[in-house]
Amino acid sequence: MGLFSSKKPVAAEAPVPEGERVSVGVVGVGNMGRHHARLLSGLPVARLVGVADPDLSRAQALAKEHRTHAFARAEEFPADTRAVIIAAPTPTHFPLAKSFLNRGWHCFIEKPLTERVEDAEEIIELARQKNLVLQVGHIERFNPAVVEMARQAQDPLFIEASRLGPFDPRVAHVGVVLDLMIHDIDIVLALAQDKVVRLDAVGGRVLSAHGDIVKATLFFSRGCRADISASRVSLKKFRKIRVFQKDAYLSLDYSERSLKIYRKKKDEIKSLLDIAVQRPRLEKKDPLESELRHFLQCVRDGKAPLVSGSHGRDALELALEIRRSLRLHSL
Q: In this structure, is the dihedral angle defined by the CA atoms of residues 283, 296, 306 and 33, taken in order, positive or negative?
C-alpha cells in the first residue's frame, strides 16, 4: 500500500456535536488537495465546507465526490469557516495565508511554507498577532516510524538520509531540494536540535533546468554531521534515514514505516551478541490523517502545532541556503 489509501476513512469514533466540529475548507484540488478533502470529509471532528480551485470544473467534480461545495475562490467559503488547508501551488501560499489569517482563519499550509523566508516570517508574525494556528505540512513528522525515532534519538553524531524517486513533470519547475529534500531537512533539524554552522552541496541537472540530483552535507555546532541525498531520476522510490549516536544505531524506512534499533549492551563490543536488535511495534496510522487530526485538535484547543510556522521557516531557510550554495553540473 502506498502512502495514501484510496479508500475513504471509516469514522469509528462517537459522533461529534455539530457545534464542536471544525468548519474547514481545502484550497487547491491537485494531488495533495484531493487527499486532504477525502480525509476531511470522513473525520467526525471536521465539517468540510468546500473545496476551491481556479479550475472550477475540477473543484466541482471533487466536491460532488465528497458531498460538499465547490468555489472558484477560497474567499467564497462560508462566513463561519474556521480553518483552511492550503494545498495550492507554492507561489500562492503567501498571499493566500495572509488573506486568510487576516480573516481570522487558522491555516494549514503544505510544504514549503512560502517561496521566501521574509514572507514566511511575515505570516508567522501575523498568526501570532491574531492568536491563530499556523501548521506546516511536513507529513513525515507524523509517520509512526519517525515519531518513534524522534523519541529514541539522543544527541545524534551522524545522520544519513536518502530520498530517491521517479521524475514528476508536474514539479519540473522546482528543483529537487524544495521538492523532495526539504522533507529530510525538516526531520534532520528536528533530530539534531542544533544550528547548522556550515554546509556543502553538489548536484546535477538531468531531466530539468533545475537540480535533479543533490547531495548536501550539514555540519552542526555541537559536532553532529548530516549527509542528505535527494534524486528524482530513480525508477523506484527509496526513502531511508539512519541515525548514529553514542549508544545506538537507528535505521528507518519511510515507505515501509519501519524502524530497527541496534543498541549496545555494553561499552566494549566483542561480538554481535553484545548488540541488541529492537523492532518497535508501531501504530498503523495514515500520516496525513494523523497530521490533519492534529491540526484540527490544535484549532479546537488553541494549542501550538507539532510542526509550527517557525519549523516550516527553518526548513525553508536551510533549503534555500543549500540551493544557493549548490555547485550544479549538467549531466
A: positive
Task: Give the C-alpha separation, 118 to 174, whole Å.
Answer: 19
- Residue 13 pLDDT class (50, 70, 90 cuts): low
Cα-only R_g, the chain? 21
Specify the 3-state DSSP secondary structure of 277.
Answer: strand
Buried b (16+ CB within 10 A) or exposed e, 182-200: bbbbbbbbbbbebebeebe
- Checking if the pLDDT of 48 tops 60, the result is yes
Contact of 70 with 46, CB cutoff 8 Å: no
Given a cut of 60, whether residue 189 has pLDDT beyond it is: yes
Contact criterion met (CB below 8 Å) for 303 and 297: yes
Tell me the C-alpha distance between 195 and 201, whole Å: 17
Per DSSP bridges, beta strands 213-220 and 134-137 are unpaired
Place of cell 537507528: 250
Provide the pLDDT for residue 242: 98
Q: Cα(120)–Cα(108) distance, rounded to whole angstroms? A: 13
Q: How far apart are CA 21 and CA 16, in angstroms?
A: 7
Distances (CA, A) of 172 to 23, 24, 29, 208: 34, 30, 19, 6
- Determine the Cα–Cα distance for residues 284 and 265; give it in Å rounded to an integer: 29
For cell 490523517, name the residue.
289
Tens digit of each residue's pLDDT (9 = 90 or more) over 120-162: 999 999 999 999 999 999 999 999 999 999 999 999 999 999 9
What average pLDDT does this structure show over 193-220? 91
Query: For residue 148, what is its C-alpha cell?
Result: 518513534
Dihedrals φ, ψ of 119, to 5°? -70, -40
Q: Residue 266 to residues 31, 152, 244, 248: CA-CA distances in angstroms?
A: 49, 18, 16, 11
Q: What distance in Å separates the CA atoms of residue 49 and residue 3, rounded to the nearest whole number?
A: 25
- Indicate the pTM of the whole model: 0.90
299/62 Cα distance (integer angstroms): 25
Tell me the C-alpha distance between 229 and 216, whole Å.
Answer: 6
